[in-house]
């Protein structure tokens, strides 16, 4: 075994865990989940059946990632974040009979490479979070988030742009649509509501 699992964690025998990954206390990795290399799954976190995670992802303590979520490389999921999988949840059908796994169609939260979801946020599936986007702590995401967007609130709304460093970008004076990272100097260009690296 080329990954670390704490004794109190539960990892299903059909799950695939990438080399160098760490599964901490009381975490649960369900059937057919696939984690890439170098992932960290914190205390009490849950990864549902068939969830796909890229390399170097971090799930902080008590994060809940329900199937069929898909996480790209380098995704950060903060403490107590919830990625849902049912847009119209019900415990019972209209006749009062308890629903089972086959009685509904799970929908996914998809998170692209480098994106971060802040502590205690909820992503209401189906929704896609773009590359290097940042969801502020405590947000409720109900619609897709563009690449590099900073969103916050309930429901989450765009409040600016962030670069790969995670720092809020500043628009260059006299250059509308040109954004710069104050930490690294990286430059981005906005056109028709889409931000791209220059």
Précis, in short:
With 198 residues, the chain is mostly beta strands.
The strands making up the biggest β-sheet line up spatially as 1-4-7-10-13-16-19-21-22
Order of helices and strands: EEEEEEEEEEEEEEEEEEEEEEEEEE
In the CATH hierarchy, what is the class of the largest domain? Mainly Beta
- The overall average pLDDT, rounded, is 96
Characterization of the model:
- By secondary structure, this protein is mainly beta.
- It has 2 domains: 147 residues, UDP N-Acetylglucosamine Acyltransferase, domain 1, CATH 2.160.10; 36 residues, no CATH class.
- It is 0% helix and 33% strand.
- The chain has no helices and 26 strands.
- The chain has a 9-stranded mixed sheet with strand order 1-4-7-10-13-16-19-21-22, with no helix packed on it. A 7-stranded parallel sheet has the order 2-5-8-11-14-17-20, with no helix packed on it. Strands 3-6-9-12-15-18 form a 6-stranded parallel sheet, with no helix packed on it.
- 36% of the residues are buried.
- The model has no long low-confidence stretch (mean pLDDT 96).
Write the layout of secondary structure elements.
Elements: E1 4-5, E2 10-11, E3 16-17, E4 22-23, E5 28-29, E6 34-35, E7 40-41, E8 46-47, E9 52-53, E10 58-59, E11 64-65, E12 70-71, E13 76-77, E14 82-83, E15 109-111, E16 116-117, E17 122-123, E18 127-129, E19 134-135, E20 140-141, E21 149-152, E22 157-161, E23 170-171, E24 178-180, E25 187-191, E26 194-197
Parallel strand pairs: 1-4, 2-5, 3-6, 4-7, 5-8, 6-9, 7-10, 8-11, 9-12, 10-13, 11-14, 12-15, 13-16, 14-17, 15-18, 16-19, 17-20, 19-21
Antiparallel strand pairs: 21-22, 23-24, 24-25, 25-26
